[in-house]
Amino acid sequence: MPPGEAFAAVARGCSPIARTEIVPLRTALGRVLASDVAASETLPAFARSTMDGYAVRAADTHGASEQSPAYLRLVDDVPTAVVPRRPIGPREAARIHTGAMIPPGADAVVMVEDTNLHPVPVGDAEVEILAAAAPGENVLTVGEDIRAGACAVPAGRRLRAADLGGFAALGITRVQVAAQPRVAILSTGDEVVPASAAPGPAQVRDVNATTIAAIVERAGGVAVAHGIAADSTLMLERTARAALDDADALVISAGSSVSVRDLTAEAIGALGAPGVLVHGIAIKPGKPTVLARCGGKPVVGLPGNPASALVVAWRIVRPLVRVLAGERIDDDGLGDERELAAVLDVAVPSRPGREDYVPCTLARDGAGHLRATPVFGASNLIFTLVRADALIAIPFDRSGVAAGETVRVIVP
Amino acid sequence: MPPGEAFAAVARGCSPIARTEIVPLRTALGRVLASDVAASETLPAFARSTMDGYAVRAADTHGASEQSPAYLRLVDDVPTAVVPRRPIGPREAARIHTGAMIPPGADAVVMVEDTNLHPVPVGDAEVEILAAAAPGENVLTVGEDIRAGACAVPAGRRLRAADLGGFAALGITRVQVAAQPRVAILSTGDEVVPASAAPGPAQVRDVNATTIAAIVERAGGVAVAHGIAADSTLMLERTARAALDDADALVISAGSSVSVRDLTAEAIGALGAPGVLVHGIAIKPGKPTVLARCGGKPVVGLPGNPASALVVAWRIVRPLVRVLAGERIDDDGLGDERELAAVLDVAVPSRPGREDYVPCTLARDGAGHLRATPVFGASNLIFTLVRADALIAIPFDRSGVAAGETVRVIVP
């Protein structure tokens, strides 16, 4: 099954988690907004100047130019943070600073570069206006940024710097966000020992628990470590059930051999209806992936090979975490801010009907464009990925990509 | 001055901070490795099978095919986590599982799909080999992943999932990383009140402290809030000096009016040698930016306008934080994993000799390519950025970008 369809099959039946938290702005970055937040007030609340210059009635500057200036009487000086003392009448102007309140009567600001000031010995100074101003010129009008009652930030938005800035502008200093999805991570394989252990003969350390946890956390989830389960259906099922009970999703890295994978699929199938939905996806590396939904929660059985596990965690687990957090994403799970586009240096063959992920290095050329150079070789080794900068994503329907083509690269 | 040159001018004289921390793998994601980490052992430590199948001497399968199979005597069964009981002699084979140790004598694995097993009533079974195996086929040899003493992960690497996986494989569960750079953030402007306050007439809330802090944190730094300084050179200089003393860098959002900006530049100039290096950069929005280095620490004076402050924080402050953390980045501060490429829907004009950042929405077309549609209008409003998905980055030397061109977009 194509990875996009496989992802959609699992994601469709999974509801975003209902738990929410109220957090201050300073910890809200990257969290997913739980419900629409409406603007509590209108911004700007008062008309403001966007320039240093002179507040005027636009009509008084009609036809003004360097050859034929308009002359206005300077009647006030309006700094920021101050309410103007008086309105602007016909043929009057007030000096005004960027951000200051536009006096009543005025409807435009002539920037200081288009004026000359003529002090006079007695009485008000005269401002020479060298350019006509249209009504509203250099003025932020009331409500131009946002109006009270309008949706300020929509539910499902993963909050960015600008969103937090919008909240600050409105005086909203705490927001309700989705709780971070809890993803239980369980490894299997008789030959696998914890990263902290010294492997015996014929044993290896668990790599996948670490990489999957990193991808879960980068996606905004909380990784809940459940160690390494014994290779028996009964024990695995028991451990997996306990892990899933305590979490919103379960990821099992399923040992390397076919027998262990079958055992994992069997244990997953027993966790709840509808059980296993997909057995094998058209992706390289990572084909022997099991996708299930058990009691409304997604369960993913990843291949034991570290590179395969990492690629499928990126392609499937990462968007699942985003869906669980209530983020709005594309149906096929693609589309992510941690993707780049790069021009391919040499051709990369592929097989249509399969998404291929090929390790590559990245470099910028003279024109500033990223160039991707595939790293061929043993793609099932963790240090092949450590040495790579990124992975070239070759789409499902392509039989390879030519040198010079622009490709999508992911940076797990 | 072009933004790239301006960044380089400040970054050149700033040393990465010397403070380091030792952290467990589970909190090391996104931190910058403080020094090269060498592999403490060789991986794999033993030759392993990458397939379920039969471990053989490759020479014994020479010329084997479906038409003319080779027949080998089955002498052992090697599951994972077990040391093989005996070596493989000529014309012998051992059943082997993915990840299991290759028995001495064997140098290849024939995958199970290329074999038939013929049980015999008495004695050893016979394996029919239907395809020749080359020496090393389906075998991970000792040291193929990494050799003891080789550099596993280099200093200056911002740690990714794969890097943490590499450490786990080696049994390295704690790593030394650079301390997170501390960036003091200070706002100015008589009209500015904290986000938590109710603005009086002619006052507005501080947006920039929030957005700058978000960009600093996203870049791996710690934002240290210093509130809003009074608009007097003496007070501002005093507050700024205290803020910088306690941090690795200082960012002042410099109020909107020219007089306040001049005052900020003056205060920055007094903080230490060499002082202000750049006054004004060729970027839109964000031209009135001040860049300084005071006593070896970078100091940035951002425009007061929220959109300008956010763009320049992204373009200048973000790479400065990365440099302070010891990350290796390009001299001009460009190049980032939070950049996408998108095809432009409609032409966007620009002026050569200036980097332009234009708010846009993003959507994927049928072929999966991102399309960027510029959001024209008041680009100096915070909610223009809230409503946008990203910003189109128009390079310094371009006089606009045509519809259909691929452009770089940033996602602050």
Automatic annotation (TrEMBL), chains A, B:
Which residues lie in coiled coils?
A: none
Enzyme class, first EC level, given as a word? transferase
Which Pfam families does the UniProt entry name for this protein? Answer: MoCF_biosynth (PF00994), MoeA_C (PF03454), MoeA_N (PF03453)
Signal peptide stretch: none
- Which keywords describe this protein according to UniProt? Magnesium, Metal-binding, Molybdenum, Molybdenum cofactor biosynthesis, Transferase
* Pathway(s) where this gene product acts: Cofactor biosynthesis; molybdopterin biosynthesis
The answer on whether this UniProt entry bears the keyword Cytoplasm reads no
Which SMART domains does this UniProt record tie to the protein? MoCF_biosynth
A GO biological-process term: Mo-molybdopterin cofactor biosynthetic process
Q: Which residues form the MoaB/Mog domain?
A: 184-323
Stated EC number for the protein is 2.10.1.1
Q: Name one GO molecular function term.
A: molybdopterin molybdotransferase activity
Q: Which cofactor does it need?
A: Mg(2+)
Q: Name one GO cellular component term.
A: cytosol
Role summary: Catalyzes the insertion of molybdate into adenylated molybdopterin with the concomitant release of AMP.
- Name the UniProt record assigns to this protein: Molybdopterin molybdenumtransferase
